[in-house]
Amino acid sequence: MKRILLFDGECNFCDASVQFIIKRDPKALFQFASLQSEVGRALLKEYDVPENTDSIVFIEDDQHFTESTAALKITRNLSGLWKLFYVFVVVPKPVRDLVYRWIAKNRYKWFGKKQECMLPSPEQRKRFL
């Protein structure tokens, strides 16, 4: 099963989220690509993701998910108690996405932009597209 997370490569919060996921993904289920990368842009086009999407994009089973649905589907696959966050899928999507958009809108102000790229370990590097 293909699980790809496309993330904002300039966002400190997004980078920290990717590191968080890697640590809680011992089976290496997820692969990653920056939204700004060639691979990321090609996947956005392949899955018909609107160009103005300001969200993580999670691709699973040849479908794409954005905003709160993407985040919740990711937690469902993490080790430990993080799986329990998936219960929030019962909250109406407009409400969940309102909270997601508020965080996304303020992410640069609160967490800043990356000045340099992280250097993944050789093991982690295999997971980046």
Characteristic terms for this protein:
DCC1-like; single chain; 5 helices; 4-stranded mixed sheet; 129 residues; alpha+beta
Structure, explained:
The two termini are 16 Å apart. The protein is globular. The chain has a 4-stranded mixed β-sheet, sandwiched between helices. It has one domain. The chain has 5 helices and 4 strands. The model has no long low-confidence stretch (mean pLDDT 87). Helices cover 41% and strands 13% of the residues.
Topology order in helix (H) and strand (E) letters: EHEHEEHHH
Beta-strand proportion? 5-15%
DSSP summary: helix tally: 5
Q: How many domains is the backbone divided into?
A: 1
**Major sheet details:** 4 strands, mixed
Report how far apart the termini are. 16 Å
Helices and strands: which structural class?
alpha+beta
Mean pLDDT: 87
Shape: globular
Q: Output the strand order for the largest sheet.
A: 2-1-3-4
Give the radius of gyration.
14 Å
Uncertain stretches of 5 or more adjacent residues:
none
Number of strands: 4
Could you estimate the helical fraction of the residues in percent?
40-55%
Pfam families: DCC1-like (PF04134)
Organism: Solibacillus isronensis B3W22
InterPro entries: DCC1-like (IPR007263), DCC_oxidoreductase (IPR052927)
GO molecular function: protein-disulfide reductase activity
